[in-house]
Amino acid sequence: MKGRKTIKKPSFLISYWQCLAVVAAFLALIGLMIYSSVSGEYNNRAARRSGYDSAAIGRSIATTFNKENVTAQDIVILKNQLVWHYSSTGQAFEVYYNKQKVADSSRTMIMHYCPESFEEEPPIYFFELADIKYLQYFDTPEVQKLKAVVPVIDLSDGATLNPKYDEQPVLEIGVKEAYINMETGKFIPVVCYVLDTQSAHELNISSVTVSIPIDKNSPELKGYTYIKSNGIDNFSASIEGFEGAAPEYIDNTATRNDFDVFYGYKSSYIKVKSFEDVYKTWIMAGNCALVVLMLALSLIPASLLYNRRKRNYEIFEYRRKTTDAMAHDLKTPMAAILSYAENFENNKDTDKQKFYVSKITEKVWQMNKMVNNMLDFSRGENTSVAVKKAPVDIGVVLADCISENDHEITKRKLTVNYTKSSVTVDTDKELFTQAVGNLINNAALYAKEGTEISVTLDSARIVISNVAASAVEDAEAMKQPFAKGDESRRNYGSGLGLAIAENNLVLLGFKLDVKSEGDKFVVTVTL
Question: Relative to the CA of 70, which of 27, 183, 219, 506 has its CA 20 to 30 Å away?
Answer without folding.
Answer: 219
